[in-house]
From TrEMBL:
RsbT co-antagonist protein RsbRD N-terminal domain ranges (all copies): 43-182
Family: Belongs to the CdaR family.
Protein name: PucR family transcriptional regulator
Domain PucR C-terminal helix-turn-helix as annotated: residue spans: 350-406
Source lineage: Bacteria, Bacillati, Actinomycetota, Actinomycetes, Propionibacteriales
Domain of life, per lineage: Bacteria
InterPro entries with a match to the protein in the record: CdaR-like_regulators, CdaR_GGDEF, PucR_C-HTH_dom, PucR_C-HTH_sf, RsbRD_N_dom
Amino acid sequence: MLDGGVAIVHSGAMASTAYSREGGSPLDPFVAWVDAYGHVMFARLAEELWAQVPELQTVGSTGIGELRSSIVSHLPGLRAALLGSGAPARLPEPARAFAASMAGQEVPLSAILRAYELGHAAIWNGFTEYLRKKEPAVTRRAEALEAGSIRMFDYMQAMTGRTIAEYNRVRDQVLRDVNSQRSQMVRAALAGATDGRELGELLGYAVDSTHIGYVAWCEGPDRGPELAEAARRALAGAAAQHIAVNADGTTVHGWFSPVDRAVYADLATVQLPRGIGLALGTPRDGIRGFRHTHEEAVLSALISAPPLPQPVRFPDVAVAVLTSQHSELCDRFVDDQLGPLLHHDDRQRLMSTLHEYFATLGSPRRCARRLGVHPNTVSQRLQRIEAVLGRVVDPADLRLRVALELTRWRAVTAVSSGRVGSGPVPRDAN
């Protein structure tokens, strides 16, 4: 690639020398063609591109005028580049305005780049056709084509790059504005300042339906850009409608209406990308449900660290969420109920037995089956547990059941108040 580039430049220099001996530049025919036919051809080119790139037509009839002005505005810059001054530092103002307009109206960037590509080809084809008619000498024609292709490619490459930069600048600003507006509406609905109707009127999200609130988060800012899309993909099959706002660079708050309530059970088994967490509130109805399910999702996310492979649902962690509201009191409660067992040398085996025994409603046989041991082994372990705790182990004992649930979540989660933003109300994205 490098050798080829050097060869082209060297050939261009030789061509320039050849023309110099004859009193001209190899680019003189190109400049003459631009002067004679450029304005007419560039204006006509707008009609052709408008027809060939249908995405441009989505902006309405005014778009073709903007496109025409954009194309024609490149004439002085292209002529100057052919004469050796290089590409201008900035886009011509009509071209910049066109790129900004397309970004603001959500025309895909690919459509604009396609227009540049087709325009480049059309201009080059027009010049080569002109050259064949006006320059009979094959050598001089080849020199003009070679030198012209280099200058024109450099100009088009520079203008394409600046168009992309302008498009992305405006598009980023539009997205920030949209997210800020969406965040303000959501904040007002959560605070009870509105009934949420504007979410439907302006954003297409109906509040008079069933809602499941969620919080999606990632462990580092490098994953932030993919977070919203990862959450959307995880919920795509379950959502009849969906809305989301950025809480900060590593957190997204969202809501969706399930296609039916049965999908809520299926969401517990969804596989999430590594390093991305998802917490779900309970399905709830109306504007009150919109607020309540969000609060549940935020609280569920607060106790889930690091992110788990599957979504965390509020009903599954409700006990842990409730007790986490006073963590010191919770710690004392667990220690009061299970302290001696938690500090026992054989605590891992005894605690797993106790968990399964309670999960099977006090059935030594079913507990043994789940542990892969003999029922007598379960009975012996239960006797040891009772001796350690100094109390009878009864699956109906609410205090023991709550303490066990808390220890289960301690094994896989940790309280991390800085993980999901500042609270249940999303902040504006910067």
